[in-house]
Amino acid sequence: MTYSINLFLQNYGNIILLIVGILIGSILGIYLPQVVVYIKPIGDIFLNLLFVAVIPLVFFAISSSVANIEGTNQLGKIIGTMSMVFLMGVLISACATIAVLYFFPLEAPHVADGAHLLENNPDDTWSDKMVRFITVSEFGKLLSRENMLALVIFSFLVGIATRKSSMAAQPFLAFLNGGNEVMKNLLILIMKISPLGLGAYFAYQVSSLGPQLFGFYAKPLGLYYLFGTIYFILGFSIFAFISNGKYGLTSFWKNNIVPTLTALGSCSSLATMPANLIAAKKIGIPDAIANVVIPLGTTLHKQGSSISSIFKIYVAFLLIGKDFFDPTTLITALGITVLVSVVAGGIPNGGYIGEMLMISVLGLPIEAVPAVMIIGTLVDPLATILNATGDTVASMLVTKFTGNKFQVAAVDSLES
User: How far apart are CA 401 and CA 277, in angstroms?
Assistant: First the structure.
């Protein structure tokens, strides 16, 4: 009996503490909002520690994984399969959302004037935006989480260059491998205070967003959360089953609890990435796949942003009195959704960048801007869960489609 209790606590102790922390934070946010201002710094400190540690983790994880892949064909196969899985995931979630909105139409919410929310630089061209999106002007800017895609591309190129350097780069390869192990262990240490940090941050979210949840946006938000939850459970279950049968289904959900709670508490795909990497290891996803797909997916693969993008475009078209279900509009919406899903970086409320892209491409009038902004903010928790945990199931699919085998997870070494 004692052994069973100890085994249960060993496997689920951290999860229980995380749930307790989030529940306490929610209660404080609802009933004692005046206390939130004093405990919010705890959550900020925790997230800052995560963000600082994640930047070098992304570099070491991607560079070491690419450098250690044996054979050029294997690397190309992983990248090609990953791109297909990412694109299909975004399009499947977007098309499913369009179908739901067609059968369950919404009424346009009332919005206030929001002219001050839209600020465009008339001299800023799309080529300028693209250059800033994928590159930076100097090395130091790669260390900012605002330039995650540029860091991912740089890390990937470093890994390729290391592979091409063969024996001469062995000391540098050892440095990359060692750095990857150090950063993974550092993040495991930081995650030990996650119940306290995420509980404090969740209290702030509940206290600041709670009143708006029952306002003008109740119906679109209710439909989003209902459909998003169904898609999360059913869609991801199907993907996990396709990847590795019944074992893939059970192992995914068993190890997806901590990433889900981390995403819910932090509203950040980037902050959830360490938990995803640990979960991938326990599921048995090969490191060469997980350490490439999950960091890249943090920036490039966002099914939650895909769903919310369709919702926001739909509501915006209701406000301006246009037919969302016109074929040309639907094709445009799908194209914008793919772009928005890429642009929405792995940072809290990073979807604002994607929303600005959406507003610019569609040429939306000022009166539609507040609805897009508010909906984007209020759906962020569930969108982040779908964005972040979708990277793990994407890694499972890449493992399946590249012909790799799921490995026996070294759970004990991860939890020690």
Answer: 20
Residues 6+ apart with CB under 8 A from 34: none
DSSP 240-305: HHHHHHHHHHHHHHHHSHHHHHHHHHH--HHHHHHHHHHHHHHHT--HHHHHHHHHHHHHH--HHH
- Does the pLDDT at position 214 exceed 90? no
Sheet strands (E) in 306-355: none
Taking the C-alpha atoms of residue 294 and residue 38, their distance in angstroms, rounded to an integer, is 34
Helices (H) and strands (E) in the chain — how many of each?
18, 0
Structure token digits, residue 267:
């509203």
What pTM value is reported for the model?
A: 0.67
Per 3-state DSSP, the chain is made up of helix, strand and coil in percentages (nearest 5) of: 85, 0, 15
Q: What is the pLDDT of residues 281-297, one digit of tens each?
A: 999 999 888 888 898 88
Q: State both tokens at 190.
A: 């930081």
Are the C-beta atoms of 15 and 275 separated by less than 8 Å?
Answer: no
Of all residues in the chain, the percent with pLDDT exceeding 90 is: 21
DSSP per-residue string spanning 152-170: HHHHHHHHHHHHHTGGGGH
pLDDT tens for 368-380 read 655 676 677 678 7
Contact 300, 148 (CB under 8 A): no
Q: Using CA of residue 93, residue 94, residue 96, residue 97, what is the dihedral sign?
A: positive
Q: Which of 32-36, 217-221, 330-334 has the lowest mean pLDDT?
A: 217-221
351 Rama sector, left if φ>0, alpha if ψ -120 to 50, beta otherwise:
alpha
pLDDT given for residue 312 in this prediction: 85
Q: Is 301 helix (H, G, I), strand (E, B) or coil?
A: coil
Spatial separation of the C-alpha atoms in residues 87 and 85, rounded to whole Å: 6
Record the tokens describing residue 386, joined without a space: 């779908």
State the chain's maximal CA–CA distance in angstroms: 70
Question: Exposed/middle/buried for 405, CB within 10 Å: 0-12, 13-18, 19+?
Answer: exposed
Angle between helices 257-266 and 2-31 (to 10 degrees): 20
Residue with the two structure tokens 């994640």:
54
Contacts of 399 by beta carbon, 8 Å cutoff, 6+ apart: 243, 244, 285, 286, 289, 405, 406
Q: Which amino acid is at 340?
A: V
Is residue 62 within 8 Å of residue 292, measured between CB atoms?
Answer: yes
Structure tokens at 208: 């600041």
78 and 174 Cβ atoms separated by less than 8 Å: no
Q: Which conformational region is residue 268 in: left (phi greater than 0), alpha (psi within -120 to 50 degrees), or beta?
A: beta
